[in-house]
Amino acid sequence: MRSVANLLLLALSLAVPAAAQTAGDSLRIERLAAAGKLWANIRYFHPWLASRAIDWDAALVAAIPKIQAARDAGEYAAAVQSMLEKLGDPVTRVIRESPPRAAPAGGENPEWSLSTADGILVVTIPRADVPDAQRRLIAVGGKLIKSRGVVFDLRSPAGEEGSRGSLSWLFSSTALESHLSSTPVVGPEHRSRMYSGFPPEGGTTSGGYYSGWQTSDGHRLSPASGAKDVPAVFLINAGSDLPAAALALHSAGKARIVADGPVSDAVAVRRHRFPLADGVEAEFRRSDLVYPDGSVGLEPDAVATGEAALEAALALARDPKPAARRPKPPPAAAPRAERAYAEMKYPPVEYRLMAAFRIWVVFHYFFAYRDLMGEDWDAVLKEFLPRLEAAATALEYSQAVAEMVTRVHDSHAFINSAVLSEYLGVAPTPVRARLIEGLPVITTTVDPAATEQAGVEIGDVILKIDGEEAQARIRRYGRYIASSTAQALAAFVLRGFLNGPEGQEAVLLLRDRRGREKEVKLPRSRGYSAKMRDQRRGEVLQILPGNVGYADLDRLETSQVDRMFDMFQQTKAIIFDMRGYPRGTAWPIGARLAAKESTGAARFRRPMVMDPARPGQDASSYHTFVQPLPPSNKPRYPGQTVMLIDERAISQAEHTGLFFEAANGTKFVGSHTMGANGDITRFHVPGGILIGFSGHDVRHADGRQLQRVGLIPDVEVRPTLDGIRAGRDEVLEKALEWLGVKGPVSGVGEAR
Question: How far apart are CA 723 and CA 132, in angstroms?
């Protein structure tokens, strides 16, 4: 048989190759991927999807056939626009660029002007991108003292938009705004979505992840010495750049806004530009305006067109009428939960593509180890879109979803799919198998009577399962299991590769210790699943030869920790067996191993996502903290400590190793652990599939990487086939030898 490394490399690399694509099909996938990423970004960052009842899934489903059928860039843009229109938001739209405008001669913009009408100063600023803009606005400030009022004509030429934010900077940097009010005024806040990690959509998490609203304080306008309240009117159209000072003055009732034609808060809210395919671009709303009184949006005081709009502005400057009342929104609703579409056993193609977009966006923004993937995640999306399109059955769909998730290389990234579970087998046999010297070997039994009756012996090598070669089965199962490391993949595959339908016997071809082949039959039953939890039998706590304590952390309960320390207080060392999964004992044990309190035990980092990413950039900032060992007023253990580790240790088991290492320098004996830690969180995709992944990046206290590496043994030793057959626990023996105790042990650990 091939070595373990070869088997696992084959399993990891055995991806179904993408079908050769024509140039036209490649463009179609490019368009689909870009539109799907836009849809997914809007899902998490458009504020209305967290406060209004909008069926955003339906918008995508309706748009996909149009995107698929688009014959050119124009039809593609129209298809995307049809999706965006479901929001009813004028800010969020496909961008149709106007032809470039010729620069004025001499660098001057003749459309800038300064005039008076009945003592009203009229400042025309159609564009704010000329070199002398500051000089012009400084001059305006000097003229305000003698004016009855001022009209800022900010209308942009037809089909053009001002440079967003330019006027806000100019009004502030020239101190023009400080001459418009005698008292401080504050503008509306910008409210947008933010995420601290990924709040789970199913199950629970210990990560403390949450989403919510972030608000940026409104612009504060401070008056200049001797400033007076100057009646100000801002004349705008849909392409205007409205300065923040205008919103602050309007909020305080010290300015009016007149619209030339229909306008919205698009002139003031934050937006995000998003490149699509085929030279098409879109942009979407990033924030809402929220005023101190709770009102939202932008409500002009008057609406007219052309010269009538200017006349309306002049009239309000001469005789300011009460400001228009802005609407107050209904109470903010909780964000709409993602629908699992569990009723769709085999989702239609639009929903299968939606699954790819959901997977892409969640891992793109919220996977704590995205930098360790080693994959081009955008390319993975484009690879799997045709795979999901072509999935002809519910099983093929679940398999494609699982294979896409494996590409994140995280052993926490599981998929919970009833269809895939049935395919891989829901009922185990009464034996456990591990890769020993590169061979799948039966190492333990949970039903000795059944295995003895079948003629199965510990140490038998598995050659076939139900007629399928063991190597082929390992590769087949490995395609659907995400893993951080080769050893993690081995552990997961061999944990379930003997499974099958409930009640159906497993027919195994084995090779025994004498080299003879034999066919045996073992029962399969879900009832064995609960018995698989504990890795070992025998006493949980023992004192071994050489006055060394032994504690099986796979079975030790927190209620037994104090008794353990009482029992081991006079021993020279303790061996902690962490070849399995613990029961929350890291905290009370670590506290009593530490030489001093508040010792840093592990470094945590989770994504803080407040803005959508721009191409080639990471939008995440990170919340980082050091987790300390908990305090304890109980006696510390003064002796040496050793931890036994192997590929069965994951997550909390590895975290236990971090605690003990930080507490007193506990040494590790055995082989690398799985290499996956970080508080699982979960999300749904259509078909009722639940997907988990690591939400925290967790590292050693000194910052060393744990994910995709595992705990590294100080003394490396692995079980041998001869040792398994002889009933020896060679890892435990090596730990005792390192502590100065020689000789075999029996009836403890994994020895029989």
Answer: 85
The answer to whether residues 637 and 568 touch, using CB atoms and an 8 Å cutoff, is: yes
User: Pick from 282, 264, 262, 265: which is nearest to 273 by CA?
Assistant: 282
List alpha helices for 340-461, DSSP H.
Answer: 349-366, 377-390, 394-406, 418-424, 448-454
DSSP run (H or E) holding 396: helix 394-406
Say if residues 185 and 248 touch (Cβ distance below 8 Å): yes
Angle at 436 between CA 461 and CA 576, to 5 degrees: 130
Torsion angle defined by CA atoms of residues 196, 198, 200 and 201, in that order, rounded to the nearest 10 degrees: 120
For residue 578, the SS3 value is coil
CA end-to-end distance (rounded Å), the chain: 27
Architecture of the domain delimited by 421-531: Roll (2.30)
* Complete DSSP assignment for 591-621: HHH-SSTT-EEEEEEEEEE-SPPPTT---EE
Q: What are phi and psi of 726, to 5 degrees?
A: -85, -5
DSSP alpha helices (H): ranges in 462-601? 470-478, 486-496, 527-531, 561-568, 586-593
Top-level CATH class of 108-318?
A: alpha beta
3-state secondary structure of 290: strand
Cα angle: 63, vertex 67, 68; to 5 degrees: 120
How far, in Å, CA of 704 to CA of 96, rounded? 49
In whole angstroms, what is the distance from residue 338 CA to residue 750 CA?
A: 45
CA separation for the pair 326, 339 (Å, rounded): 34
Q: Is 563 helix (H, G, I), strand (E, B) or coil?
A: helix
What is the per-residue pLDDT across 4-40, written as a single tens digit (0 to 9) for each? Answer: 445 554 444 444 444 446 666 999 999 999 999 999 9
- Nearest by Cα to 528 from 426, 383, 408: 426
**Residue listed under structure tokens 């919205």:** 264
| Cβ count near 514 (within 10 Å) | 5
Please choose, from the candidates 643, 22, 544, 612, the residue with its C-alpha nearest in 3D space to the C-alpha of residue 272.
612
**Angstrom distance (rounded) from CA 219 to CA 233:** 18
- For 382, other C-beta atoms within 10 Å of its C-beta total 19
Using a cut of 0.90, tell me whether the model's pTM lies above it: yes
Query: What is the full DSSP assignment across 491-508?
Result: HHHHHHTT-BSTTPPEEE
What is the phi/psi pair of residue 81, to 5°?
Answer: -60, -35
Q: Residue 46 in contact with residue 285, Cβ under 8 Å?
A: yes
Gyration radius from the chain CA atoms: 34
Residues 6+ apart with CB under 8 A from 596: none
d(CA 274, CA 213): 22
Looking at domain 541-738, which of 3.40.50.970, 3.40.640.10, 3.90.226.10, 2.30.39.10 is its CATH number?
3.90.226.10
Structure tokens at 350: 């639009």
Tokens linked to 238: 């849909």
What is the per-residue pLDDT across 494-547, written as a single tens digit (0 to 9) for each?
Answer: 999 999 999 999 999 999 999 999 999 999 999 999 999 999 999 999 999 999
Domain boundaries, the chain: 108-318, 421-531, 541-738
Q: Mean pLDDT of all residues in the chain?
A: 91
Hey, which residues does 292 pair with through a beta bridge?
A: none
Residue 546, burial from CB neighbour count under 10 angstroms (0-12, 13-18, 19+): middle
In Å, how far are 39, 70, 331, 382, 479 from 357, measured between CA atoms?
A: 8, 20, 30, 10, 21
Q: Which pair of tokens denotes residue 39?
A: 């849809």
The DSSP H or E segment spanning 242 is none
Fold agreement between 108-318 and 541-738: yes
State how far the alpha carbon of 344 is from the alpha carbons of 348, 352, 421, 548, 619, in Å: 8, 10, 16, 57, 34
